[in-house]
Design brief:
The protein is α/β, with parallel strands linked by helices. The chain has a domain of 251 residues: FAD/NAD(P)-binding domain, CATH 3.50.50.60. It is 37% helix and 22% strand. The chain contains 13 helices and 18 strands. A seven-stranded mixed beta sheet has the order 6-5-14-15-16-13-17. A five-stranded parallel beta sheet has the order 8-2-1-12-18. Strands 3-7-4 form a three-stranded antiparallel beta sheet. The protein is globular. The chain starts with a strand and ends with a helix. The protein binds flavin-adenine dinucleotide.
């Protein structure tokens, strides 16, 4: 059986790992190849993100070592502190403590690249066939298999093609022409800065952050009437080794990522000019000034100091993630674009890979496909089951993320006041259990439960 994976972001890598793990013992002639547009692994590229307990749970299924490294090198933050731009603390939101989600480590703030690198190491260790500098331009179903065409003219055939090629997926276009991700009118801008760039009044009062006994969090989310500004440590270090992430999100007419730094500077300073912390300090303005200077001083090659512009996208809810015959599948952002405010992009992408690999292995065994070398029935049913299991969960999380994004849009005086009141009230009573459906999801147990209801 030949499988082609298009794209090696988090969803492509996890899909590769789990397909390899669950299919190798049952398919003697298994061949999996992954093709990636980037000419080299995307090490050091990208910004930072929150990795949720359910994502950490799935990463632990890939490798206990990767999980332990990610956990110990990121910043665990079981609570977010919400403020308004006038320095009023609206409240604390529980976002996943290690006690509530045992074995996961809880929520961590980290760089996307560090998570990617740990998973990539596992794949390299298992001898994964990843081909860089290979852009797929077309995916065409044929009688004898699925034809994959590359930019350089090469053509390959496969029994199964997995589209893990992100927001602007080429594979999606082959299965669902016309379904495109669209700019949602919000743009995030951010980078990382050293610990010293953050005024000491905002530093963690203790490391590790004692979320159980304090009513503050060093992970701060500030909402204004014209956007949002967040900052958080991304590693458990202080002083020279400590690093913070920051990001500003606001409405924009343009999805261009190539704004001149002077224009980014002007927009950021204008947007956040009177924003203060509870002590009346202009913390946000000082972070912006530091980050802009750092960007201007850095050489183009030092990506860690550059400011990233990330337009946010949304996509209509897909009817399904599989082609009729199950020979073409979508995973991660190609199936369900997750905006950054979902906090679930990496987590759901890795769950997708696990679920599909288990379902396909189950169907191959059930239909005894290896004996006849005919995988059609197994692929068709596994595709349907995959959509059935993943879509309700992903759709729900996408809807929650859309609501979170709306809080970052421009608000009238009245809307701002009611947001502060109702959101503050919500935070006062928000139970820790409110995220259980999302964070408490144990992907292996969910597949077990699902398969018990099937032949
Ligand atoms: C370099 C990079 C940096 C990122 N930084 C952040 C961040 O700072 N914050 C955040 O919230 N999210 C970030 N993301 C997105 C986040 O990682 C994803 O939302 C999430 O992990 C889901 O991943 P995915 O694998 O589905 O898609 P992606 O992570 O987008 O991966 C898709 C992969 O497919 C490749 N690809 C696309 N088209 C083709 C093609 N035609 N042929 C071959 N390969 C193709 C891409 O090069 C990419 O490596 C980043 C993604 C990338 C690729």
């Amino acid at each position: 059986m030949k499988i082609i994976i298009v794209g090696t972001g988090i969803s492509g890598l996890t899909a590769y790992h789990f397909l390899h793990r669950f299919l190798t013992p049952i398919i003697p002639d298994l061949e999996i190849d992954a093709y990636e547009s980037y000419s080299t692994p995307s090490i050091g590229i990208g910004g930072t993100l929150g990795l949720a307990p359910n994502g950490l749970y799935t990463i632990k299924l890939i490798s206990e070592q990767a999980h332990a490294t990610i956990l110990s090198s990121g910043f665990p933050c079981a609570k977010f502190e919400f403020r308004n731009s006038k320095g009023k603390v609206l409240g604390l939101m529980p976002v996943g403590s290690p006690e509530r989600y045992p074995g996961t480590g809880g929520e961590v703030m980290h760089s996307r690249s560090a998570i990617y690198e740990e998973i990539l190491k596992v794949l390299e260790g298992q001898g994964a066939r990843i081909h860089y500098g290979k852009t797929v331009t077309a995916v065409t179903p044929k009688e004898e298999g699925v034809e994959v065409t590359f930019e350089d003219g090469e053509v390959k055939m496969a029994d199964l093609v997995i589209g893990a090629d992100g927001i602007k997926s080429t594979v999606r276009r082959a299965v669902f022409p016309g379904v495109e991700a669209r700019f949602e009118g919000l743009v995030g801008v951010g980078s990382t800065v050293p610990y010293s760039a953050i005024p000491s009044s905002e530093h963690p009062r203790e490391i590790p952050y004692d979320y159980k006994n304090t009513k503050y969090s060093p992970t701060v989310m500030t909402h204004g009437s014209n956007g949002f500004f967040g900052y958080s440590p991304i590693n458990p270090k202080t002083g020279d080794e400590g690093r913070y992430q920051w990001w500003s999100t606001a409405e924009s007419d343009s999805e261009s990522r190539d704004l001149p730094i002077e224009e980014i500077e002007r927009q950021l300073l204008e947007r956040h000019k009177d924003w203060v912390n509870p002590q009346g300090e202009k913390v946000i303005e000082s972070i912006i000034r530091f980050a802009i200077q750092q960007h201007k001083d850095s050489a183009d090659t030092d990506r860690s100091k550059r400011i990233l512009v990330l337009p946010n996208y949304y996509m209509q809810i897909m009817e399904r993630y599989h082609s009729d015959d199950g020979r073409i599948l979508l995973m991660g952002d190609s199936a369900h674009v997750m905006p950054p405010h979902s906090g679930q992009g990496v987590s759901l992408a890795s769950e997708d890979g696990y679920v599909y690999a288990r379902l396909l292995a189950h169907e191959i065994q059930r239909t005894k496909a290896t004996e006849t070398n005919d995988y059609k029935a197994a692929l068709s049913t596994a595709g349907k089951y995959y959509t059935e299991m993943r879509k309700p969960r992903n759709d729900k999380i996408m809807a929650v993320a859309a609501r979170a994004g709306n809080m970052k849009r421009n608000l009238s005086w009245w809307e701002e006041k009611s947001r502060d009141f109702f959101f503050g009230l919500f935070l006062r009573f928000a139970p820790e259990s409110m995220h259980d459906g999302t964070f408490g999801y144990k992907v292996d147990e969910e597949v077990d439960k699902f398969l018990k209801t099937r032949p």
